[in-house]
Amino acid sequence: MLFRRREPDGLLERVRTYLWPRRSFSRSVQYFSKRILRLKATPHSVAAGVAAGVFASFFPLGFHFIIAAVLCWVIAGNLVAAALGAVFFGNPLSFPLLWGASWETGKLILHEHLPRHGPPEHLGEMMHTLSFAKLWHPILEPMLLGAVPLGLVFGLVFYGVTRWGMTAFRAQRQRRMTERAGKARQGGREVPAE
Question: φ and ψ at 122, to 5 degrees?
Fold first, then answer.
């Protein structure tokens, strides 16, 4: 590879960079937005893919890419955009917030079925033994039920923002290309037809 480092980063440095970017978070947001805007697909396909990735990030079981891929297939979304949306929206910094919001929303939906004072006292033991049957009712059921409405709301918001951004970006690029072609014709050079 042309721009490879002489000494590759170690595991700790890669984890640190993933959690806290070298430059800044705004630069990382710009990078992801440019990657999404430059995808060669329809605005609906890219926006649906991003929405599927955002929707899948709310689910607690870790099958985000599988959920996003199935949802992309259903709504004709772009798989690359879904992966980018899932990685950008669902990351180690945001997972506690997403899952906590899902759990609280699920508790509101199942208000009469859950204890009022948070998780059970033996949650540590259940997590240690990873007993799915014991974890289902107090933890996983409310998280899954809460993930659906939150994922739908945030997915629709990201769909609208991404579709608007794709449309504006492509219109601006088309306008720049038209201006360049006009300037080239005025300068005496004939631009070859595509």
Answer: -95, 30
HEC assignment per residue over the chain: CCCCCCCCCCHHHHHHHHHCCCCCHHHHHHHHHHHHHCCCCCHHHHHHHHHHHHHHHCCCCCCHHHHHHHHHHHHCCCHHHHHHHHHHHCCCCCHHHHHHHHHHHHHHHCCCCCCCCCCCCCHHHHHHHCCHHHHHHHHHHHHHHHHHHHHHHHHHHHHHHHHHHHHHHHHHHHHHHHHHHHHHHHCCCCCCCC
65 and 56 in contact (C-beta within 8 Å)?
A: yes
The two three-digit tokens of residue 34, written as one number: 């440019």
29, 101, 19: which is closest to 58 by C-alpha?
101
Sign (positive/negative) of CA torsion 164, 166, 170, 173? positive
- pLDDT exceeds cutoff 70 at 116: no
**Tokens matching residue 154:** 């945030």
Tens digits of residue pLDDT in 120-136? 555 555 556 666 666 67
Q: What mean pLDDT, rounded, does the chain reach?
A: 78
Q: What is the pLDDT of residue 113?
A: 59
